[in-house]
Design goal:
The chain has 91 residues and is an alpha/beta fold. It has 3 helices and 5 strands, in the order H-E-E-H-E-H-E-E.
Length: 91
Amino acid sequence: APARGVVMCNSTALRDIGHLHCIDDTPAKQGCVIPGTEIPVGGWEVVKTTGATKAILLSWNYRESMLARLASTGFTGRVLIPLPETEIVSI
């Protein structure tokens, strides 16, 4: 739940899409929701418990490490990377 992701969720229709979850390494943020939304924040176990096949990378400045970590959870699907240029990658 990085600040830029909070802004993106609150300034777009993203917050209105159902069944969203946010992953954050910060224990203090886990168990909360993204401010201004009802999107729950959890740890990496969310990937396995939800069976997600789509993801949005809100910490695009950590692109390579986040994609590698997502793949290491067993995630297979598509990842939207909104900035600096919009891109969709498959894992």
